[in-house]
Model the fold of this input.
Amino acid sequence: MIQAAVVFAYLALVLGIGLFAGRAGTQQNAEGYFLAGRALGPIVFLLSLFGTNMTAFSILGASGHAFANGIVTYGLMASSSALVIPVGLFFIGTRLWALGKRHGFMTPVQMFRDRWECGHIGTAIFAVQAVLLVPYIVIAVMGGGTTLSSVSGGLVPFWLGGAVVSFVVMGYVFFGGMRGTAWVNTFQTVLFLSFGAIAVTVIARGMGGFSSAMEALLASPSTAPLLTRERVSPLYFFSYTFIPLSSLAFPHIGIFCLTAKRLSHFRKTVVLYPLCMLAIWLPSVFLGVVANKATDLPPIQTKVEARAALAAGGPDLTTERRAELRAAASGDDVILKLVQGYAPVWLAAMLGAAVMAAVMASDSQILALSTMFTEDVFAFYGGQARFGQKAQVNTGRAFVIVLTVIAYGIALVSPQSIFDLASQYAFAGYSALSPLLVAALFWKGSTKWGALAVTLWTAAAVAGVAVLQSAVPAPPPGSAVPVWAIGGTTVIARIAAGTTVLGLLPVVPMTIVSALLMIVVSIATRRSLPGAATLARYEV
Amino acid sequence: MALVIGFVYALHQDVWLWRSARPLVFGFLPAGLAYHAAYTIGISLLMLALVRTRWPSHLDPEQ
Done:
């Protein structure tokens, strides 16, 4: 109960920070509320941008994935992101900032509309971006429910935990806008960055040192593969380097790039970003792997047994039984169980709050969607001109409430693990949208029809993957169900973690086809090139 | 610089460490995980070099 009390106190504190930030800055005009007046300093910019990218899946999803799949998790998501995101911020983020400053853009869609001289195509891009961002917000609700339920020993049920976290996030986003979100994110990032070192030290002591645990894992044939990548093909591993492209296309990252006061704020951000990734992901993945040896803790023993039953049952298991075992084996709360098992109560409570900090970092996505709705729809279709900026800000606040309620509803009925949900829909979809940003910023020959082709393709591909995965049940881990084959070669297969296309994750063909569509359709429609005056505005 | 970034990107695919957990670096970090941790630190150095040699100062209205 002490742990739950500390976590609730923490929630009250972040709500207070958000409310205070809301009073400290100008919240009455759109730029003040949605972009913190484009005036964030270097430290807040770095920590809040990093915190925005680190959501529930960074700690809970990563350690849960590592618990089941081993050290491969770090290479799949952390080290690839540590390269792609800073390089993207260096080349794309700085350019976006400069154009936003020069032309007053507040969302990527505003820039797309101006760059390609289009209106309704921008609305189509908004719609696809909005639908793809919802899963990301759902992750926060699911993570909040899991964490509060776990730290309270089940006293707070999943549905109530998710509701509490949703309410707190909604509160400080509603009142604090971008300034409140950035301040809370900065505080949370400091908290969860310090979590890793403390958690590793405490758990190592509790387990009697990691060396003996590692030797024991290596000695067992069932756990030794967790310390290598032999269960994953190099092709599948390579696929994951396409996932961080999504970070460049995420509207909340694009919008965050516009909040820096000076271009020089990007310098520290791109250099320190990989080190922040290391500080949060290495402990999460390592502890997830080492948890396989913590079978003296009953909750972890139950998970290990469920996983063994899942593997032993194979195709003979009924769909219901498989889903039941999969849920029992899920490692999303494995770090919390380690902390509860090995740390003193007061420290476990502090660490529980730090985990909660990472879980709640989806506030920026909610604010971004609200910004997009008010700028790309409300203001674009005449709402701001008719009702004024104050009404625009209030519309954004109302949208925050509606969105949070929808995300909460989805989280209650979604059975998938946090990691899978995020990577399969939101990440893959946004990676496929990344050619939009690259073409808008770097290719004069791109046209609005190329942009529309990319948008429609992304929507169709994500819908296709979702339909396929609901129609073909996931097979047991380690096996694959061929869905479409040509001449004996499996083209599309259903695997436990999702779908593969020629052994690659769908994100790879989705992104490559997107890029090709942008090129081919733009060349075919070059009569629709924007005027010389428009193109000149983008020469920076 | 594009070649250097491409080379670092290629280094992510460390197939030579695919099936080996040993040596355990510091006695507890499997080789593959230690490699990717060192790789992440290397990226930070790459970004430092990029910032020092290729900073897009022409984008800065204050310059």
